[in-house]
Amino acid sequence: MDAATLKALVVGLLAWLNVHTGYEIPAQRPVVAFVPQQELVRMACTGPCPVLAWSPTDSPHVIYLAHGLDPENNTCERAILVHELVHHLQEHAGAFAEYAPAARNHMREMEALWIQKVYLHEHGRKLHYSGTLAIQGLTGPYC
Question: pLDDT tens across 31-43, in order?
């Protein structure tokens, strides 16, 4: 995916998110970087995990996506980007800042999952996840 197409996709998704969440679109757009999935595991997990994307809270202007994801052409993979963009907007809005860190992280994740599900529903898809909220089936459909 070329940089201009990715930038346009992010701008469009941020506009969609503004309408659906009320979060203001910050002036600084996130940088979307594609990295090997193993690198995502190293950055985001304490052991093996099925992570496909990650937005570090200590660097809120970067969203990491696993190499091979195609958010331009794949609705399910675009919804993963939507989820991470929700985290970007939450961070800039200071969402759930009044809660203790564990509760804040949980509430942020629940909201991002809910918005991701809304996005998929509008596109005729559903999110399949386990009780631990990890997306199931890296080798199969996850939406």
Answer: 999 999 999 999 9
The distance from CA 92 to its chain's CA centroid, rounded to whole angstroms, is 15
User: Is 62 in contact with 111 (CB distance < 8 Å)?
Assistant: no
Alpha-carbon gap, residue 44 to 61, rounded angstroms: 16
Which regions in the chain score pLDDT beneath 70? Answer: 129-142
Asked if residues 82 and 115 have their Cβ atoms less than 8 Å apart, the reply is: yes
Query: For residue 65, what is the enclosing H or E element?
Result: strand 62-66
How far apart are the C-alpha atoms of 18 and 23, rounded to whole Å?
Answer: 5
Please tell me the predicted confidence (pLDDT) of residue 118.
95
Give the span between the Cα atoms of 126 and 123, in whole angstroms: 9
Reported residue count of the chain is 143
